[in-house]
Structure formats: C-alpha cells, structure tokens
Design goal:
By secondary structure, this protein is mainly α. It has 22 helices and eleven strands. Helix 3 crosses helix 19 and helix 7 packs antiparallel against helix 19.
C-alpha cells in the first residue's frame, strides 16, 4: 500500500507540473520509483582562511597579551590627543567622550579612566566645577623615557630600515608603509627627517614617498634565523641537512597532530628556498616543489620582518603594504595560519595581530631591548588597575588635604589685609588683644564650606 501511495503521489506531481518543469522543487518530492534520478547535492565544508582562523587552536597567553597591548595603545592615543590641545595638559570628560570613536573604545570614557588610577588623575576644575582628567606624573615620565630611548637607539633603527630595504626586490620601500609600522620598528615620529634625510649616505628619497637604498651592506645580510640554526647545529649536534633550512616549531597547547602531519613537516623543514637577503632569479612556481619553495621564502621574509620589530609582532593589515615590495604574491593571512608552530594570530582588540612564537615565553620577550623594557613598564603600570597601593594612598592624602585647605598664607610675608588688625586694636584700646588672637585662631580652622551663607 505504501508503494502504491508514493507512486500515485509522484505521478500526480509529475502531471501537474509537466508544463512548468523548472518549478519542481526536489526537496518536496517524496521518495519513489519515478524520482530516483533526482540527486541530492551535499555541500562540501569550506576550507578557507576565515574557517582556519575560527578553528585554530587558541593560545590564552598571546590573546591576553594582545588585549593588554590594545588597552595600552588606546591610552597612548589619548595622550597624543591630549598633548595636542593648547589649553593645558588636561581635558574634561565631556570632551574625552568625543574621542571614543577615534581611539576605538567599546566602553564609556569615564568608566575606562576610572579603572586605571595609576595612569589617569581625576580632579575637579576649580572654576567650572566639572570632572577633568590628566595623566599622572609616573605615566608622563615613562612616555618621556620612551622618547629618549628611541633617540638613543637611532643607530639600531637605521640598521632595521636598511635590512628591510635589502629584503625588498628593487631595494625600495614606500614611506607610508614605514610610517604605519613606525612604532613596531622603534622609529621616531619624525623619522623622515631625523633618519631618512639625515643618513643620506644610506638612504635616498625618490618622489618624496619612496625611499631607496644607496648601497647594500653584505654584513647585514645575515638573517636572525641563522643564529638559531647555528646554535642548534653546535649544541645539539644535528646534521646540516636537517638544520640548513629549518625553522623553530612550537605548537600551542592542545594542538591536534593528524596522521601524516609529522612526515609532511619533516619534509617541509628540509625543503630548500631562497633566503630573504639572497638576490637570485625568481622561483619557478611550475617546477617540482616550486609552490612550496615560493611559500617557504615568504615565510622566511615574514619571520625576518617580525624579528626586526621591537616587540616581535605586527598587525596583519599593515603587512599588505609590504607585499609588492617584498615580492610576496601570496595570501599572507592564509600562509600564517598554515604554520601555527611559527606564528600565532590573535583576533583580540578588533584587529588581527601576528606574533612570533619563538620570541615569547610566558607572555614576555625572551631577549628584551631598551625600548621594550620601557613599554613593559607602561604595561605593568596599566595592569595595576585599581589596586590601592602605597602610592595611591599617599596621593589620596594629598588630595584630601588640598580639598580642606582654602589657601595657604606664609607667616613671614605681610599680606594686603594685615592693616585691619591694627585698626581693631586701636578701636578696642588694646584691651582685647588676647581675645582677638583667640578669635583669629578659631576662625583659621574653618573652611569656606563651614561658613554659613
């Protein structure tokens, strides 16, 4: 009976829609002997850079560090906006609320400022009686210290720029691209005049927006990864065949190793490639292993680029400005996600930041530098949060005392109103001098708030 019912139903649908065959919906046709030809197509799971980014193994230490650095970036942006104001080193919260979209805050400015009392100092304006904000002396001292350290490390910054130009295909880079990664490379704010124009023997400005390397220095053509390979070769007695083109691999906790993955990784580590500072003919992609060697060269260039940065990290969006100059005609984000043992991508803070895994241990750099040390002090000051330390207690006492005192009068200096006291003494005939002193002493303990209207 069931077969006859399905047969009758399929025949009725077929004859009713014979004039309009394009309107037949295969999902509504019941199963039967006359519709066996209808194929149900199953969608293959999409394997793209976005799906790999969502399914990647997370590293809590790098995600936590990315969140903290994002907050520090917001604070430095607020400092930059505040210093450009002409009315003084402070600003009202009403004006700061207008900067919320500029600095990229997801919460209210008032809530953000109150969470970091070691960084921001809140006070009431003496005239307008509204809440104002300024940076604490300790934070301003660290900002000034960073500027001084960046100026002291000017020679190292010149070497970083020279190495980047040596990695480029034509020996040129766009000034706009360098400006985007100025903080990552430890360059001063006026690096175009203080570095590019000052060291004319090394750099040459072309069309005001392109910097060209004057002469290559082959001594600098030694990648940072070569130091690790030499160390592993000498200390662990590994063969040159295994270490000549290898990279340090450090997978995150919980990374699932599938069958055959170790063999593929071993073959990839042995695969030769043209190193970042080598200037040879382009890799033939259609040759045997050409695509793998081309991608491995891009991995080597990105590894060297991150090694030259101060904090061994950079935003992925800013790497797109160097792809054409470095000759990396690959999808950078997809290439990074293919190598989770070398790089890590964090999506915290409304941006995608790539970290060099080997350079970090427990959330800190293995080999620090002077600029990183100062920025780490800023981050430690930020991480104190609302902790009521001894410094905050001392500041609170000073604020309370300053609020109680209306004005301070020096005893040695004679004020403009001191002529009133001799007149009162003459009127009283000098009989109530003691009482007058007692009255003046009692009145000195009151403030303006205690005096009745």
């Amino acid at each position: 009976m069931k077969i006859l019912q399905s047969l009758r139903c399929s025949l009725s649908i077929y004859f009713n829609n014979s004039l309009q065959p394009s309107t037949i919906d295969s999902s509504k046709i019941p199963f039967g002997p006359f519709n066996l030809f209808v194929q149900k197509r199953w969608k293959k799971p999409v394997d793209s850079a976005q799906t790999r980014l969502e399914d990647r193994t997370r590293d809590s230490q790098f995600d936590k560090l990315a969140t903290q650095l994002r907050k520090l970036k917001v604070i430095l942006k607020l400092h930059e906006l505040m210093t450009h104001r002409k009315r003084g080193p402070f600003v009202s919260l009403q004006i700061m609320s207008r900067w919320r979209n500029i600095v990229g805050l997801n919460v209210g400015v008032g809530d953000f400022v109150h969470h970091y009392p070691h960084v921001f100092d809140m006070f009431t304006h003496p005239v307008r009686r509204n809440w104002c904000c300024r940076f604490t002396g300790k934070m301003l001292g660290l900002v000034k210290e960073e500027e001084d350290v960046v100026k002291q490390c000017e020679v190292e910054a010149v070497l970083r720029v020279k190495r980047l130009l040596m990695m480029s295909v034509k020996g040129t880079l766009h000034v706009h691209a360098l400006r985007l990664v100025r903080r990552e490379l430890g360059l001063p704010e006026d690096f175009r005049d203080s570095i590019l124009a000052k060291y004319s023997k090394d750099f040459k400005l072309v069309d005001f927006e392109i910097v060209e390397l004057v002469d290559r220095d082959e001594i600098l053509g030694f990648a940072e990864i070569e130091k690790w390979r030499e160390k592993e070769y000498k200390e662990k007695w590994l063969s040159e065949f295994e270490m000549r083109y290898a990279f340090p691999i450090n997978f995150p906790t919980g990374f699932k190793i599938e069958s055959g993955f170790r063999e593929k990784l071993k073959n990839w580590q042995r695969l030769p490639y043209f190193k970042p500072y080598e200037r040879k003919e382009a890799v033939q992609v259609r040759s045997c292993g050409g695509i793998e060697r081309y991608e491995k060269r891009a991995v080597g260039i990105l590894h060297e680029f991150l090694s030259l940065t101060v904090e061994k990290l950079v935003e992925i969006e800013r790497l797109a400005h160097f792809q054409r100059d470095f000759g990396m005609k690959v999808n950078v984000r997809e290439m990074i996600l293919k190598h989770p043992g070398i790089f890590y991508v964090s999506t915290k803070g409304n941006t995608q930041t790539v970290f060099l895994r080997e350079a970090y241990r427990r959330g800190c750099l293995v080999e620090s530098n002077p600029i990183y040390d100062v920025r780490r002090k800023m981050l430690d000051l930020l991480l104190l949060g609302c902790r009521h330390t001894r410094e905050l207690q001392a500041l609170d006492r000073i604020k309370v005392d300053s609020e109680k005192v209306v004005c301070r009068v020096k005893e040695d200096v004679k004020g403009d109103g001191d002529w009133v006291i001799p007149m009162l003494e003459n009127l009283n005939g000098g009989s109530n001098n003691g009482n007058l002193g007692e009255i003046s002493e009692d009145f000195g303990d009151y403030t303006l708030e205690d005096i009745p209207n």
